[in-house]
Amino acid sequence: FIPIGALLCTVFFHYAFAHRRWGFSFNQTYSWSLIGYATHALLDGCTSYGTQLLWPLSNHRFAWDFIAVIDPAFTLPAFILVLTAAIKKQRRWALMAIGWMAVYMALASWQHQRALAQVHALAAQRGHSPERISAKPTLGNLVLWKTLYLHQGTFYINGIKVGLFGKNTVWPGESVPALIVARDFPALAANSQQLHDIQRFHWFSDGYTALDPTNNQRIIDLRYSIVPNQSTPLWAIEIDPSKAPTEHVKYIPANH
């Protein structure tokens, strides 16, 4: 879809201002749109949420967990440098922006690998063999990571501080059973809308779902929480088996 998306962008940008203001040809505008569209998708893949790189051929979401979805330390310097390049019309500022992003992403990748190594070591100390494992940076942060691993049907949550210098710090956290719909909500009909909503939420959460320890009618997304070593979610859905089969689940934001 990248070439198609780039073409749609080109039609807008070229006739809106690229040709009139900078004298770009249609092919030049398309080339820059293509580069921008392609690299944007790859940058999304570097985040903790990821993106569907193979859409519309596949809905699989690629998430490499290098940086948070929102990371001002990455975005603001790049934005300022690109804006300066546009105002001054000097290439070196754009090259500095590319250099900043490359250095920051390399550091993020290194920190991610260190966080994963730490959680692997922690699981080994406990005698666990993780079936799934992840380390996600907290908001705008390459030092504090939320880690999750699945062992024998239970998710183990830990916060890990991966300092640039010195030893790592581990804050052991909660453990919660992974969601099993047939066990946790046996009263839901197979064709109910709520069951479809649960399946969609499970896909959205990349399978990191569990019952809320404080409310067994809520399903939480374990990937994102207010505190890195806790399960208190940023969002959840609430199930009501007494609802009509056509009714939806209830969306629950943080602190509700």
Ordered list of secondary-structure elements with their pairings:
Elements: H1 2-22, H2 26-45, H3 72-88, H4 91-125, E1 132-137, E2 144-151, E3 154-161, E4 169-177, H5 181-184, H6 193-204, E5 209-212, E6 215-221, E7 235-238, E8 250-253
Antiparallel strand pairs: 1-2, 2-3, 3-4, 5-6, 6-7, 7-8
Strand order of the largest sheet: 1-2-3-4
* Helix and strand element order: HHHHEEEEHHEEEE
Helix content: 40-55%
Could you tell me the mean pLDDT?
92
Overall description:
- The chain contains 6 helices and 8 strands, in the order H-H-H-H-E-E-E-E-H-H-E-E-E-E.
- The mean pLDDT is about 90.
- Helix 1 packs across helix 2 and helix 3 packs antiparallel against helix 4.
- Strands 1-2-3-4 form a 4-stranded antiparallel beta sheet, covered by helices on one side. Strands 5-6-7-8 form a 4-stranded antiparallel beta sheet.
- It starts with a helix and ends with a strand.
- With about 260 residues, it is of the alpha+beta class.
- It is globular.
In brief, what are we looking at here?
The chain has 256 residues and is an alpha+beta fold. The chain has helices at residues 2-22, 26-45, 72-88, 91-125, 181-184, 193-204, and strands at 132-137, 144-151, 154-161, 169-177, 209-212, 215-221, 235-238, 250-253. It contains 6 helices and 8 strands, in the order H-H-H-H-E-E-E-E-H-H-E-E-E-E.
